[in-house]
Amino acid sequence: MTDRLQELQRRLQHEFSNLSLLTRALTHRSFSADHYERLEFLGDSVLGLAISDLLYARLGTLPEGDLSRVRANLVKQETLHQLALDLGLADLLRLGEGEVRSGGHKRPSILADALEAVIGAVYLDAGFAAAQALVQRLFRAVEINPQMDAIGKDAKTALQEWLQGRKMKLPVYKVVATLGAAHKQTFDVECEIPELRLAERGIGGSRRAGEQAAAIAMLQTLQTKYPT
Questions:
Q1: Active site residue 44
Q2: Domains with residue ranges and CATH for the chain
Q3: CB of 87 closer than 8 Å to CB of 13
Q4: pTM of this prediction?
Q5: Is 116 marked active-site?
């Protein structure tokens, strides 16, 4: 495993001072209690900021709403899944036996989460500049252009734009519960808009999917309460 981690570091173009961070970033909760989910949480925010900075520089003429939509297309599961495959993360994931049998190494949600965890690990190991440089290298081959804003909005982006258009704060998402066995979990997520005293729930096969489902439920509620 050490040789394979060394090879991954070469692909990442980052040599870890604390290699245990990289090991944890590749560890699913079905394998160990010392898993990647906290790193994924951190990496998600680091990725969002790094991509926002990248888009601000490259697409400086686009308004805020369009930049948000382009960013949503870049950080969506499908994109991160492909980048994780390109890095060879599928062969390095540490999964429990049940998750291995169910094809966890190929599951897009797991690979996307692991990639975010790796970004979080680089951030903890060497700071934001190193993590930002990694994100820029990862997305170097990904086409980024103003036309991407024509791609349909996902529910979280649509909800964000609805609130921003009314000068309201962004919604708050939190995992209320995880259901099912470790190798086949579903996530019960709450989407809350404190200013409107509204909260809706959604369930999905990953945290992201749960957030999207909760955002869809919230949009439906807003359309009923505020039809104009």
A1: yes
A2: 1-150 (1.10.1520.10), 153-228 (3.30.160.20)
A3: no
A4: 0.68
A5: yes
